[in-house]
Structures are given as C-alpha cells and as structure tokens.
Amino acid sequence: MFRRRDRIQYKTPEQIRKMRAAGLVVAEVHQAMRESAGPGVSTAELDRIAEEVIRSSGAVPSFKGYDIGFGPYPASICSSVNEQVVHAIPAADAVLEAGDLLSVDVGAIVDGWHGDAAITIEIGEVAPELSALRAACEASMWAGIRAAATAKRLGGISHAVEHSVEHSGDYGIVTGFGGHGIGTEMHQDPHILNYGRPSEGPRLRPGMALAIEPMITLGSPDTAELEDGWTIVTDDGSVAAHTEHTIALCEDGVWVLTAPDGGVEQLGELAASAARGE
Ligand code: MF3
Ligand code: CO
C-alpha cells in the first residue's frame, strides 16, 4: 500500500468504502451539532452529544486520548469559538452566546479506518462579516476539493484554496496548520498547505485519501498556543473559521467521504461514481 518513493498510504476501493462508513458517522455528528449548538449551550454539552452519537454508531472517537506528546486529548470534539482557530477543548464554562462563530472538528474510527471533518456554525445571529468569513472558508474548502479532481499535483489543491480565499476577501490564511493524508491513522502524509503552487508536491493518484481543511481569519494569519497545550488562537484576537472534509480520490472522480451526499451536489460531474452509489 506504500509506494517506495513516498509514505502515502494508497487505499483500495474496498478500503475507501470502509472510510465512507467512518465519514458518515462524522457527518451524523455534524448534523447533531447543528441541531444542538445555540446560545446557552456549553461546548462540554456538545462534546457529550458527539460522543454519544459516535459510540451509538459502534464507532470510536479518534480525538479522545489522541497524544502528540503532551498528554492525551480529553474530548471527542474540538470546539473553537471566535478567536480560537482549532483544537480548543470543550468545557462546561464555555457557554455559547448569540453572535459567536463556533467551529466543531470531529473524528471517528470504524473498523480501523478514520474520518475527520469540521464545520463552522453561526450561533444565533452573527455579524455579517463573520457570516462572510464562514462562507469564504467553506468555499475555499470546496475549491480545494474540486482541484483534487482536476489538478495533477497536491500543490494544485493548496493553490486552489489560496486563490479562493483571496477572491473572497481580505482574509488571513493560517499557515501554521493544514490538511493531511488520512486512513488507518488520523494524520498521515502528505501535509497539505492551504497556499502554494500547482507544480509542487506529490502527484495526485487514485487511492489517496486526504483531509482538506482551510483555516482563515478576519485579521492576521499568525497564531499562538494557549497554556493548555492544545488551543490555537489568532495572535491578534481576530475571529477565525475552519472547515474540513475527508475525501478519497477514485479512478473516476472524488468521493467526499464526510459529506452526507458524498459531495455530489457540490462536485457535479467531478464526483466519483461511487459517491452516487453506482
Ligand atoms: N481534526 C484535527 C485535524 O484535522 C485534529 C484534532 S487534534 C485532537 O488535524 F487532538 F483533537 F485530536
Ligand atoms: Co484534520
């Protein structure tokens, strides 16, 4: 499954179908988050609901216990509010208020295979510029996903994300974090920058599974880590958005494994036949 010259794990169609099962659990959690998140709700409560959805599907929350060397992550979701960019730990005293921009990142494992995706949710009525930020982040993710179907190299995805963000407005593109390969581990090669040149990076090939996840801000792209060792915030306190899908490159197109419809509506003819259930 590994080619000699890189460390990318190439999946068989059967393995991609297993990743779809994990992706659908993640999609179900997102739906529950959209229904549950609102003013007065704590992020700890959202975490409880997310874990319940994951475990009742027979899946395992991949974030819980995840350790990058500083001790285990304590929850099943990352719930990042306003100036928090990613990896914020849910807390009982983190109570959502109308006007907040919340990003929920969630990962699930089914039968050893991972799904990982994030959505940004508007809490109550938010300022128009926050709504535009959320929309720009989503649009850039879809631009990256479309590029995964048409570009020759990984850099084509990065370039498409960057180009889309720049087209949408004057936003900061977070450079310290990016997307990643995914499969039998949550984080695999290659790392996916949210900016770059189409000529760069490994060739895109069928069997690749990638998590594409732009993070953009209303201000500076610079970030800092809080003392909890996890939470990433914007340096300048500006509000951030984060959107992510896990996708698979199939012989005849892209399958968005964490989208309920497999990405068919957004991708049209770029969607893999497997995404249409064919
Ligand atoms: N889903 C995040 C990512 O895309 C990782 C979450 S880190 C964890 O990279 F510790 F919360 F698991
Ligand atoms: Co990810």
TrEMBL record:
Its cofactor is Co(2+); Zn(2+); Mn(2+); Fe(2+). It comes from the Bacteria. Binds 2 divalent metal cations per subunit. Has a high-affinity and a low affinity metal-binding site. The true nature of the physiological cofactor is under debate. The enzyme is active with cobalt, zinc, manganese or divalent iron ions. Most likely, methionine aminopeptidases function as mononuclear Fe(2+)-metalloproteases under physiological conditions, and the catalytically relevant metal-binding site has been assigned to the histidine-containing high-affinity site. It holds the Pfam family Peptidase_M24. SUPFAM superfamilies: Creatinase/aminopeptidase. CDD domains: MetAP1. Its EC number is 3.4.11.18. InterPro entries: Creatinase/aminopeptidase-like, Pept_M24, Pept_M24_MAP, Pept_M24A_MAP1. Residues 18-248 form the Peptidase M24 domain. A divalent metal cation 2 binds at D116, H180, E213, E244. One of its GO terms (cellular component) is cytosol. Substrate binds at H87, H187. Keywords: Aminopeptidase, Hydrolase, Metal-binding, Protease. One of its GO terms (biological process) is proteolysis. GO terms for molecular function: initiator methionyl aminopeptidase activity; metal ion binding; metalloaminopeptidase activity. The keyword Transcription regulation does not apply. A divalent metal cation 1 binds at D105, D116, E244. It catalyses: Release of N-terminal amino acids, preferentially methionine, from peptides and arylamides. Removes the N-terminal methionine from nascent proteins. The N-terminal methionine is often cleaved when the second residue in the primary sequence is small and uncharged (Met-Ala-, Cys, Gly, Pro, Ser, Thr, or Val). Requires deformylation of the N(alpha)-formylated initiator methionine before it can be hydrolyzed. HAMAP family: MetAP_1. Monomer. Belongs to the peptidase M24A family. Methionine aminopeptidase type 1 subfamily. This is Methionine aminopeptidase. The gene is map.
